[in-house]
Amino acid sequence: MNEPRHPEPQPEIPGGPSRRSTIVDRSELPAIAERERVSRLLRTHDLVEAERAFDELTSADRVMVRLIARESAAFGTEPSVRYSAIAALAHKASAEDLNLLTDLARFGEDFYVRGHALLALGSTGTYAHLEPVLRGLSAEELFERAAASKALGALARHTSAEALRAHATALGGVERAEQVDAALSALETSASRRPAAPAQTSQGPLGTTTS
Amino acid sequence: MVGSITESSIREQRPISRYGPLDDLPRRIARLEDMDPSALGRHIGLEADTAAALLERARLSQALGFAAATTSGVPQESLERALRTLIQPADQRLAITDVVPAHGPVMSGKPFALRVHFAAAALNPPRLASVRVEWTGEPFVHEVLLTAEDAVSGYVDVVFGADQALPVGAATFGVSLYNALGAMSHFTATCAVLPSNPFALQVGPNGSFVTGTWSARGVRNGDAYDTGIAITLFNGGTTAVTVQPGFQWTFWDGGVGGSLVEQGDGAFPGGTITVPAGGTWGGWISFHSPDGSGIFKHYQDREDMTIEIVMTRTDGGTVRGTITARTMFAFGVNITGVAGEDFIGQEWSDLFAAAARTRTIYERRDLTFDTDDRFIPRAGVGGYEIIDSFDEFHHLLADWSGPNTNTNIDAFIVQAISVGGGVDGIDGSIPGPTSHDGSDSGVIASKSGFVDASGTRRLHSAYLGMLIGHEIGHYLGLVHVSDAGDLMLPSSGTNDINLSYDQYRTMIRHGWVRID
């Protein structure tokens, strides 16, 4: 392959290309060291790595996971790490974890947080969490409604539509049961609208750009 | 011999202490313990009596959400604003509210300090400030422990010594503040480091905001190559400097003073240039080099060149700067928003900023890409806006990757991924196919949206740019590595953006990577 040749001299940097780093010893700051380790485990991008990382979280790590799950992205933290922490709350969950998930699903500071908490509640597979999921189906923001719908689908897969219907009736009468039916039906309808053959995406607002 | 021609224009300059496009803006986050009912009412938009009731409950409650939910008359909007912008007396969290240079602009070759403002509960004061500096050279980290006095003052000055002084150019400071519980807040601020001597010219690549050493690149455009560069004049003096609008340009082979490739003159529009005291001025120059020109031949032969730009002050002194110009291997990426209507305007802007970030990551390693901006309409999205199984991911690729589009890699940006674990990106196969057929052609990344302290829906562009780059790396054949700072770490973060030469060699062998 005809690769480029790079004979040009590198630009000179006054004072040289490196500067002294000063790192505070983490042995004096155990919680910060723990934070950095747990953040690394939560910040895994691909499926196999993420499942392995969640398994590496110890019961002692749960305190830090809950702290990260409460930290607002408005404070400058990476939202992906927070959403991963929210997902981790549903993995081998304690009562404290599940309570926090329910708090976030109901009182999260925005629809993204509430939506991710609903997805995590759905992944627990227990219809003990049906009420906040049903509530999310009527949320104002589309993402929160879509997350509630997916969570309901996950609960139905783990249990059964009939069980969800029965518990929804117990929570709020026939109206709630109908809400479950409508949401599960909408999930099926949505999937049936997928293209029969590969489809074309639409042109976005910017079109083609080069550097 | 055919000669190259130039065009030039003036570009808008950003404030010298908010110099980067991905910089954070000051956050209006306050401590509840400092507030009376009227201040709280103004802060989150409540009537004074409702604010008083909320304040009373909040002082008794462990959680602001509980207090707000049990106080009558608190609308959802005020509840959300309170949760985003208030620190409670026993709050474990803390927030950086602003980062600015402490004692005037950052000057080249001189010690400097950053003032980090924060909001934190008195019970849980900040303990450690960690600053990662991206500049022309290798990134470095500077950390300081905070004192009790710092905690009371609401800010800390992070002082950089003479051996950490920076040269002229952009420097990005990624500031993280921690308390003893491990809670963290982050803030990004970029400063233009001004010349102490006190005037300088710097040449950068076209289109990308960079803080390191990058190259300009020749882009094949029919029977010609186009080269774009950014010119910045830095004035560290206390009076404005005027500069003649004309410039001399030279392309050298073998560095300045080597073999002359081509040279010429041009001028920026608008007459005499005024560079304000303690400020910057910027312009673009684009070179069009047709077949038969010396520049065309060098690009064609894959030979690097050095571009030299010389400008003259009205008082007679000259300033000059250089940059390496080269052709790069290139590929294309379809950046596709899934349920496109669910990206508001700001989120599209943030997505484009993320794609620009991805491009700078790759151009640091002499690979570049074009993007085609696409979306899947909500009406036809079929549940793909939230991917909740691995099968569903592959169905998305099978349904929406191609056909008959182009040879671009499909990068689908979904609203969320919920497939077990904390997955925020998935690749179809390593490497990805050179066809849109089948169910492996593409990657997905979660947009990971959030609402910022001002209530605006945003995407974290710096993180998302890294994540898209990571998944594209898989498509181009890269596997996970364990080298610190590498883009392909299994848990790469916002600042893990390095690509090695071996990784470059792997990627250029992918069938969709070309060189013109």
* Silhouette of chain A: extended
Number of distinct helices of chain A: 9
Radius of gyration of chain B: 26 Å
The helix content of chain A is 55-70%
CATH architecture label name of the largest domain in chain A: Alpha Horseshoe
Q: What class would the helix/strand composition of chain A place it in?
A: mainly alpha
Q: Beta-sheet strand percentage of chain A?
A: under 5%
Shape of chain B: globular
Radius of gyration of chain A: 23 Å
Class inferred from helices and paired strands of chain B: alpha+beta
CATH superfamily of the largest domain in chain B: Collagenase (Catalytic Domain)
Distance from N terminus to C terminus of chain A (CA atoms, Å) equals 24 Å
Count of domains of chain A:
2
Contiguous low-pLDDT stretches of chain A (5 residues minimum) are none
Oligomeric state of shown chains: heterodimer
| Count of individual beta strands of chain B | 28
Largest sheet of chain B: 10 strands, mixed
| Total count of helical runs of at least 4 residues of chain B | 10
CATH hierarchy: architecture of the largest domain in chain B? 3-Layer(aba) Sandwich
What's the CATH H-level superfamily name of the largest domain in chain A? Leucine-rich Repeat Variant
Q: Low-confidence stretches of chain B at least 5 residues in length (pLDDT < 50)? A: none
What are the SSEs and their pairings?
The complex is a heterodimer of chains A (211) and B (516).
Chain A: H1 30-42, H2 47-56, H3 62-70, H4 79-89, H5 95-107, H6 111-124, H7 130-136, H8 142-158, H9 161-192, E1 202-209
Helix pairs in contact in A: 3-4, 4-6, 5-6, 6-7, 6-8, 7-8, 8-9
Chain B: E1 5-11, E2 30-31, H1 37-44, H2 48-60, H3 64-69, H4 76-85, E3 86-87, E4 94-101, E5 112-120, E6 126-134, E7 140-145, H5 148-153, E8 155-160, E9 169-179, E10 184-193, E11 199-205, E12 216-220, E13 224-235, E14 241-253, E15 259-267, E16 273-275, E17 279-290, H6 294-300, E18 305-313, E19 318-326, E20 329-338, H7 345-363, E21 367-376, E22 386-387, H8 390-400, E23 409-414, E24 416-417, E25 425-427, E26 443-446, E27 449-451, E28 457-459, H9 461-475, H10 501-507
Parallel strand pairs in B: 2-3, 12-19, 20-21, 20-23, 22-24, 23-26
Antiparallel strand pairs in B: 1-17, 4-5, 5-8, 6-7, 6-9, 9-10, 11-13, 12-13, 13-17, 14-15, 14-16, 14-18, 18-19, 25-26, 27-28
